[in-house]
Design goal:
Elements: H1 3-24, E1 30-36, H2 55-63, E2 65-71, H3 76-85, H4 89-92, H5 106-112, E3 116-122, H6 129-134, E4 139-143, E5 165-166, E6 169-170, H7 173-176, H8 181-194, E7 201-206, H9 234-254, E8 261-267, E9 276-278, E10 284-286, H10 294-297, E11 298-304, E12 312-319, H11 323-330, H12 347-350, E13 360-365, E14 379-384, E15 387-390, E16 395-397, H13 414-428, H14 435-451
Parallel strand pairs: 1-7, 1-8, 2-12, 3-4, 3-7
Antiparallel strand pairs: 2-11, 4-5, 5-6, 8-11, 9-10, 13-14, 14-15, 15-16
Helix pairs in contact: 8-9
């Protein structure tokens, strides 16, 4: 072996060793997935919000990876089923306030891989504690779960004096009196982190903030002084969300866990329709929760893995089916060939690689809601090459947030005509779904409910 060959061989061994150590350093990664309730991308300073102070989330975005094009579904239950299972809703979503208890979720996959698992926050998917455990969570502290009729509690709602269900029991009134629901949930999360166990942890943290009712927080001057519900408190709620995240990061830092924990922050859908946010650009964005528009679909997405995620901003397209494969890859967890995932991992992008960004993002939306007009907006939408196309063929620029200017086919140049044809073909490849029939069914149910009201 000549000296040149020896040098190449030594270099090869070094690179092989470095590569192995590089990959080993990510084994047993802790994962915390934070999903805020009803917060469009426009609510964070990192994305240009002028009306709210969000220093902790801004810092998380500055020091981690900020994704500019993440799309959820426009409503809570559909987004929760999708993010938990890695599937588009046409595969496994059944109805509002429900998940099929036989589904395999990220909780199951992490627990089966030896992780400690917990959920803290808004449940809203039916069943009871056994349902939550069967869907993969060792421990839980949740709101939005049915209370047995025979159980007497003064506690109610999600914020002041909240009704909380923790590990098989509803918390006593004296445990929650004059306490704030988001604080109770953060305490649960921190206690779970602190348990002296050798296993890594996965925490799914679907926050109860900033969903209506819009009420004072512990930092509001009206805290415990009024029962008023008013959008004027929305900014306080956004800023308290930011504080909760800051306290969580501080807790992880004190325990030297930031370099061992992947943190992903996102939201389940766009902002409530009663909220208009001023942007630093001068633009005003009104929330469109429940609607299949940009303001209903576009949500924040920030990923931070201290020491491993470089500071960067990306325009890659992401949809909610991508979250599950991403966190599985971060934790080196495989899944069986029989387990169907529609998503594509963006974990390589989180740790500074190019990855394999998707060409298009997709949403199938039929919330099966009988109590509001949400179902009137059911449909499919595809985002690709700067355009947004619906299942009925309508095409808009992605910059047209509210679908004001439909782009007629007669005005297409050669490039846009090619994009339109490709988008039509992609949408047509999905299984046929009769949205019109479902919309009419929900309208009929709503009319019957109204007719029976006094």
């Amino acid at each position: 072996m000549n000296i040149t060959t020896k040098l190449y061989y030594i270099l090869f061994l070094f690179l092989l060793s470095f590569s192995s150590n590089y990959l080993r350093s990510y084994e047993n990664t802790n994962v915390i997935l934070i999903m805020v309730d009803d917060m469009g991308q426009e609510c964070l300073g990192a994305y240009g919000a002028k009306d709210y102070k969000t220093p902790n989330l801004n810092r998380l975005a500055e020091n981690g990876v900020k994704f500019n094009n993440c799309f959820a579904t426009p409503l809570c239950s559909p987004s929760r089923v999708s993010i938990m299972t890695g599937k588009y809703n046409y595969r496994n979503y059944e109805e509002f306030l429900h998940i099929n208890p036989n589904e395999i979720t990220f909780g199951n996959l992490f627990r089966d891989a030896g992780y400690r698992t917990a959920i803290a926050g808004k449940w809203q998917l039916g069943g009871d504690g056994d349902t939550i455990k069967s869907l993969g969570f060792d421990e839980y502290c949740v709101n939005n779960i049915a209370k047995p009729k025979e159980l007497i509690r003064e506690a109610n709602g999600r914020y002041v004096f909240p009704l909380m269900y923790q590990n098989g029991r509803f918390l006593e009134d004296d445990e929650v009196r004059n306490r704030y629901g988001p604080d109770i949930l953060l305490d649960f999360v921190c206690d779970f982190i602190d348990k002296k166990e050798s296993k890594p942890f996965f925490i799914y943290y679907p926050m109860i903030l900033v969903h209506s009712p819009f009420v004072p927080t512990p930092h509001s001057k009206d805290w415990l002084k009024t029962e008023e519900k008013d959008p004027k408190y929305f900014s306080d709620m956004v800023e308290y969300t930011d504080e909760i995240v800051g306290r969580l990061l501080k807790h992880l830092g004190k325990r030297d866990l930031l370099e061992k924990t992947l943190i992903i922050f996102t939201a389940d859908n766009g902002t409530h329709r009663s909220i208009t946010t001023r942007m630093s650009s001068g633009e005003k964005i009104t929330g469109e929760k429940g609607m299949l528009t940009d303001a209903g679909l576009r949500v924040p997405l920030i990923a931070s893995y201290e020491g491993k995620s470089p500071s960067r901003e990306l325009n890659d397209l992401i949809d909610f089916s991508d979250i599950l494969p991403t966190i599985l890859q971060a934790a080196n967890i495989g899944s069986s060939e029989e387990f169907v995932m529609d998503g594509r991992s963006f974990y390589p992008q989180i740790i500074g690689r190019r990855g394999s960004p998707r060409k298009w993002a997709f949403c199938h939306y039929d919330p099966v809601t009988w109590f509001s007009d949400f179902n009137d907006h059911a449909g499919r939408v595809l985002m690709m090459d700067g355009y947004r196309m619906y299942n009925d063929g309508r095409l808009f620029s992605m910059e047209d947030r509210l679908n004001v200017n439909q782009l007629p086919q007669s005005n297409d140049d050669q490039q846009r005509a090619a994009i339109r044809n490709e988008m039509e073909a992609i949408i047509a490849a999905f299984p046929v779904y009769d949205f019109y029939k479902k919309i009419e069914e929900m309208k009929e149910i709503r009319e019957k409910i109204k007719a029976n009201q006094p």
